[in-house]
Structure formats: C-alpha cells, structure tokens
Design goal:
Elements: H1 28-86, H2 99-131, H3 144-159, H4 161-172, H5 179-188, H6 191-205, H7 213-224, H8 233-260, H9 266-300
Helix pairs in contact: 2-3, 2-5, 2-6, 3-9, 4-8, 4-9, 8-9
Length: 301
Amino acid sequence: MICPSCNQETEEGKFCTKCGSPLRQQDEPTNTSKENTSETHNEAFQQEGASTAEKNSESSQAFNATLEKVKTGSNQYWNYFLTRIKNPNAAFKDNEQHLTNAIVTAIILALAATLFFYGLLNTLFNDAAGIFGGDESLSDYVPFFSTILKGTLIFIILFFAGLIANFITFKLVKHPISFTQQFTRYTGTLVPFAGLFIALALLAFLGIVKINIASMGAWIMQMESGGVGDFPWGLSFVTLLFIIVMYVNPVIHMLYTLIQEKTKQSFYFTIISLVITFAVIAIVNNLFIMDILMSILESIG
C-alpha cells in the first residue's frame, strides 16, 4: 500500500515502515460518516416515537371529549325528564332548544310501549305453551329485533297522529306556532307516560304484569252468558292509557294553545283537530298497520 505522508510503498499495518506516519487516517471519514448515519437514525426514531405519542394523546383527548359530551347530554336529559315528570306543565314553555330531548323521548316512549306489549305477548305465549305441554318460546316464531322495530314504528305513528292533526288545524286558523315548537311541547307532556311505559315493560318481562288466560276466558264466557264476572281492570287501564296518549293529549295541547292566543272558536277548532286525529289513525291503520300486525300474528300461528 502507499503511505499518504511520504508516498512510499509500505507494508500494511498501523504505521508506515518508511516514515512512521499512521496509515489509518483515510478511514476516519468513513467512521465519521457511520456515526452521522447512526445519529440520523436515532433522531428519526425519536421523531417517529414522538409523533406516535402525539397521535395517541390526540386520540385519547378526542375519546375523553366524546365521553364528556355523552355524560353532559345524559345529565341534561335526566334533568329534562325529571322536571316534566314532576311538572308536565313545564313542557308548554318548551321551544327549539329542547328538540333533541323531545326526539329522544319520542323514541323511548314508542320503544317502551312496544317492549311492554312484547312482554305481555311473551308471557301469554309461555302460559299457553305450558298448558299444552310445549317448550317453545315466542322468539322461535317472532323475531325479536324486527318485531320491536315494526312495533316502535307503529306506536310512533299512533302516538303522534294527534300532532299531525294539530299542525293541520293550526294552519287552518293561521296560527304562527312552528312545527318544531309544537313537537317539543307535545312530546314534553308525554314524558310521564314514557316513564310509565318503561315501568310496565320491565314488569311485563318479569312476568309480574301479564294477561291471565284463565281469568280472561272466564270473563268472556260469563259475558256471553249474560253475566258480569270479574272485570279486567288491568286491560281497561292499558286501554285508557292509550286513549289519553293518542287522543286526550292532542286535545289538551290544541285547546291550551288556542286559548293562550285568544283564538275565536277555540272549542270548535279543537273538535276539528280531534276528528282529524281519528281520520289520520284510521288511514294509516288501513294502509299498513293492520298488515304489520297480521304478519306478526300469522308468524305466531
């Protein structure tokens, strides 16, 4: 090899055999380059780690923010719910700011009513199966989720047919109230019934509230024979409950709003709204509600 200091040929080693100069100076840039490369890799790794940590921190913050919003929304709805349980008259002052709570209440009301009837039907089916020695359950014949979805749709239509009738009547009298304001106030007064249906649904699934086949059959037979028998108070209570939600609540809202605005002939316009409510329910019943109910009953049979 050639010595970089004296340019004389020398044997390989650490020092030149001619002048004694070190022979490894030409390798130093390479070592420096390797060190620089190693430092670059370390910096890149640290930057990547910092970026990953930052992303994880952002994801955690977003999740915490979402969780906090859910908690805040739940607390707000709970306060809304309790206020109208204690004093339903507070709903008559609701406005567009209560729209989200009103929508949640409408869904809860229809869903709870559906679950209540499903629970009654399930207990009735189990009792009948026990009498005839069967071990089937209602879910073997009626799919739970699809039935609940159909039932919820039916009850939303039935419970809010009066709202549609009121909206039409308000247009007839040229009342300035908006549909959103009608909806929030109408639904706000239904909060107590939503709570009641939730309780009834739980009791129905527990088998505490149920239709007694024997008592029902005995009452029907006594009625056919001209007797009185034990009146089915439970069934009458449920029927009255639905009448209040479907017909009485719309009448209260219509009459209250018209009187507040000092509308002439408030009484007659309220009667018109009630008639429209009957008509709307009859129309939707003939269009598809009966078809849905018949399909459910046929699946049981």
